[in-house]
Amino acid sequence: VQLQASGGGLVQPGGSLRLSCAASGFSLSREWMYWFRQAPGKALEWIGSITPTSYTYYLDSVKGRFTMSRDNAKNTMWLQMSSLEYEDTAIYYCAKDRAGASRGSGTLVTVSS
Predict the structure, then answer these.
(1) Could you give the CA distance from residue 46 to residue 52 in angstroms, rounded to a whole number?
(2) Other CB atoms closer than 10 Å to residue 60's CB: what's the count?
(3) Residue 13's pLDDT is what?
(4) Would you list the DSSP string of the chain?
(5) What's the confidence (pLDDT) of residue 1?
(6) What is the rounded distance in angstroms from the CA atom of residue 50 to the CA atom of residue 32?
(7) Stretch 89-97: mean pLDDT, rounded?
């Protein structure tokens, strides 16, 4: 099982980024999938879940700004982030378990002016 997040970078406050999560070694079509982030010096934080049929749940602080989506045929999911804030600076991960234990390599998002 491998999960690789990508698409991070440096963005100004108010900007947008789209992260991708490529899954390999398993089919995510029947899996709930999750996004997490870890800010410098802080614990891993759940930010959202997406069901196999694309129903979504979000952390309150990202609700309305972040949108998760998935394409089961491509074994890929995405996290569209908009109206980014300084506090969104973190390494972002995707995972197939609610605890985040399966998260693979993350991608760094830096929100800075």
Answers:
(1) 18
(2) 6
(3) 97
(4) -EEEEE--EEE-TT--EEEEEEEESS-GGG--EEEEEE-TTS--EEEEEE-TT--EEE-GGGBTTEEEEEEGGGTEEEEEE-S--GGG-EEEEEESSTT-TT--B-EEEEE--
(5) 86
(6) 6
(7) 97
CA distances 17 to 46, 51, 73, Å, are 18, 22, 23
Write the single-letter amino acid at 15.
G
Place of tokens 């930010």: 47
Place of tokens 């998760």: 68
13-68 confidence digits (pLDDT tens): 999 999 999 999 999 899 999 999 999 999 999 999 999 999 999 999 999 999 99
